[in-house]
Design a protein that fits this description.
Blueprint lengths: L2 H16 L2 H5 L11 H4 L13 H8 L9 H4 L7 H9 L3 H9 L5 H7 L22 H15 L14 E5 L3 H12 L3 E5 L8 H4 L8 H13 L3 E3 L10 H6 L2 E6 L5 E2 L12 E3 H10 L16 E5 L3 H12 L4 E6 L10 H9 L3 E4 L1 E8 L5 E14 L5 E14 L2 E4 L3 E2 L3 H5 L25 E3 L2 H4 L4 H22 L1
Helix pairs in contact: 4-6, 4-9, 6-7, 6-9, 7-9, 8-9, 10-19, 14-15
Length: 487
């Protein structure tokens, strides 16, 4: 144990003695300030959550018990030392807290905003066993990362001496960025290839700025560039260049993190009408291509009566975006009940506050259009929940003869995505599932083609930012070990 570790143990022991456990658990959980719901529902670029003050963060950090066996860390896919960074906040050393986060996370300011902490770290918090609210780990992560950025004292993680081995990452979403950061720390020359004109993948095109501002993502990317990571934009691997081209160019390992950008539809009558589009197209136009600007080259129709089909975070992002673009009536249509919705509880809460209607236990069965081919109505089948299946989840079933016809002028379909097929189709020997996902070893993330590792949505078929980052970190460890054994 070195001197700094001994010192850290000493002050953490002092913090434990400063308050009894019951005093810590009696402190109520902090509630993050938010923009007024009516105001924010018309403001597309202003962030809804306003962040914690230093006083709020330090008080919330006091709730952490600094458990001998921190179960919160078991729920973190990227392995953040949660008690250490939280205790740094408690003692007022916010920059050290941010530095701790960066030891394992390439995107702390991003994760503090969009990670489903309630299902991950906070879901494992010891407070829950005492019938108390969990420590607000996500709020504290956001606070530390924001404090560092706003202070201008941005730390860059240490990197090992260059080993002159070239590594490629395909896709600059959360999996690709996490992988790139870890490989750079190990001394590799990392190049990230991005198909679009901006770096960030789904963080830029899929998540609205009222939830994740682009400048936050940009700062995290700049940090990776400071570590030596190189980025190439407007390059579609599998089309512009091939995997074989990368091998011939001297890349010794390739991590495929090209995501799941292929939208799914329901194959119902009227889906080809003008005004019916996927959430991928809708959000990409608005978030990445400035479609809300009347002078944009890629405008988007601003519906007044907008229905979004689905109940996940992407559906919430879409319907809340529609509200901000001027929809007088914005609706979520979901075939199950609200309890089954996969969206974060916070996102559902924010949507309701902003005036979004929830048509649960309804499912579209047809879209109706006018003579010009534009959608004007949707026919909804009323549903009810049947008996639980083998997994315990109750499946929706139709109530025969019960339908409703609702007027709409725009429909956004958000019922899932499929992986980008370019790379799977262009690489001989790559094993792919019937859903189009790349088959990898669950532990190493290595595919049937040894040089190719893969993670994120191209493997999972659609998951959270933090799970994709966990895949990227696991792939980096495994690729490093594979390359060393190969040498």
């Amino acid at each position: 144990m070195n001197h700094s570790e001994e010192r850290a143990m000493a002050w953490r022991e002092e913090l434990r003695k400063s308050m009894k456990a019951k005093e810590r658990t009696d402190i109520p959980r902090v509630h993050m300030p938010e923009l007024d719901a009516e105001y924010r529902s018309h403001s597309r670029l202003e962030e809804v959550n306003l962040g914690l003050t230093a006083e709020m963060a330090m008080l919330e950090a006091k709730r952490c018990l600094d458990c001998a066996n921190p179960t919160c860390m078991l729920g973190c896919p990227v392995g953040i030392d949660i008690p250490k960074f939280v205790k740094n906040i408690e003692r007022g050393d916010f920059l050290e807290a941010a530095k701790t986060l960066k030891e394992t996370s390439a995107l702390p300011a991003v994760c503090g905003r969009v990670c489903p902490q309630e299902k991950q770290c906070e879901g494992q918090c010891m407070h829950l066993k005492m019938k108390k609210e969990s420590v607000a780990v996500g709020h504290l992560e956001r606070f530390a990362a924001d404090y560092e950025r706003e202070s201008g004292n941005i730390s860059v993680p240490e990197v090992a001496p260059a080993n002159n081995i070239k590594i490629a990452a395909v896709g600059s979403g959360p999996a690709g960025l996490a992988f790139a950061g870890d490989m750079a720390k190990l001394g590799y020359e990392v190049v990230v290839f991005e198909a679009l004109h901006e770096i960030g993948g789904v963080l830029k095109y899929g998540i609205p700025e009222f939830r994740l501002p682009n400048d936050i993502v940009d700062v995290e990317i700049q940090n990776l560039q400071s570590m030596g990571v190189h980025f190439v934009t407007n390059c579609v691997v599998g089309k512009t260049i091939s995997i074989q081209d990368l091998e011939e160019d001297g890349f010794k390992g390739i991590f495929v993190a090209s995501g799941a950008g292929l939208p799914r539809f329901m194959n119902i009558k009227g889906e080809n009408l003008v005004g019916v589009m996927s959430s991928n197209e809708y959000l990409t136009r608005v978030n990445l291509m400035d479609a809300a600007n009347p002078e944009s080259d890629t405008p988007v129709f601003k519906g007044k009566k907008v229905a979004v089909i689905g109940g996940g975070n992407t559906a919430m992002d879409s319907v809340r975006t529609a509200r901000r673009l001027g929809a007088e009536r914005a609706m979520i249509v979901y075939r199950r009940s609200e309890i089954e919705m996969p969206a974060r509880i916070e996102e559902v809460k924010h949507a309701k506050e902003e005036g979004i209607e929830f048509w649960t236990l309804h499912n579209p069965i047809e879209y109706v259009g006018n003579e010009q081919g534009r959608v004007t109505h949707m026919l909804l089948q009323v549903m009810e929940l049947g008996e639980p299946d083998a997994s315990g989840r109750r499946s929706p079933v139709e109530i025969p003869g019960k339908t409703e016809l609702i007027e709409v002028d725009e429909v956004v379909v958000s019922v899932g995505v499929s992986p980008n097929p370019l790379i799977p189709q262009s690489v001989e020997g790559l094993e792919v599932t019937k859903w189009g996902t790349v088959v990898v070893d669950d532990n190493t993330m290595q595919s049937a083609v040894p040089i190719i590792f893969a993670g994120g949505d191209i493997v999972r078929g659609g998951a959270t930012v933090i799970l994709a980052m966990g895949d990227g970190r696991r792939a980096a460890r495994s690729m490093d070990e594979w390359l060393k054994n190969k040498q």
